[in-house]
Amino acid sequence: xxxxxxxxxxxxxxxxxxxxxxxxxxxxxxxxxxxxxxxxxxxxxxxxxxxxxxxxxxxxxxxxxxxxxxxxxxxxxxxxxxxxxxxxxxxxxxxxxxxxxxxxxxxxxxxxxxxxxxxxxxxxxxxxxxxxxxxxxxxxxxxxxxxxxxxxxxxxxxxxxxxxxxxxxxxxxxxxxxxxxxxx
Length: 184
Prior knowledge:
Layout: H1 2-15, H2 20-33, H3 40-48, H4 54-80, H5 95-114, H6 119-130, H7 137-146, H8 152-180
C-alpha cells in the first residue's frame, strides 16, 4: 500500500510541473526501487485481466488516487503563498485524448509486462507524456478535487481517459498472452 501511495505521490508531484522528462524519470526510479504498479492504468488493466484480485487492486487504486490528491494538496498549499495555481486538467474527452489514452495504456502495459516493470516504463512514459498523453490519472483526479472543478466534462475527461488507458493495458495483456507467448 505504501509503495502505491508514495510512488503515485512522487510521480504526480513531478507531473504537476508538466515536465515530461522529470515525470518519466521519477517513474523509472520508483519502478526500479519500489516495484508496484504506481499508475492507475496498470492497476485497472491487471484487475480486468484477472492478474490482481479485486480487493488488492481496489486498495492499490485507492492508495494511488490518495497519492495524487496529496501531491496536488502539497503543491496547492505551496503555491498559495505565491499567488496560487490553477489545474490545467483534461477539459473534455475528445478523440485525440481517447486514442492517446488507449495507445499509451497499451504501449506502457506492453513494456511493463515484457520488461518486468523497470526503468523502461519510465522512459516510455516520458515519451508518451511529451507526445501529449496523460499518464497519471491519479494526478488528474487530485487536481480536479483540490481545485473543486467537479463538473461533467472534467469527470468524463479524467475518468474516461483513465479507463481507456486501462482498457489499452488490458488489451496489451491479452495480446501478450495470446499472440506473443513467453518472452524469449
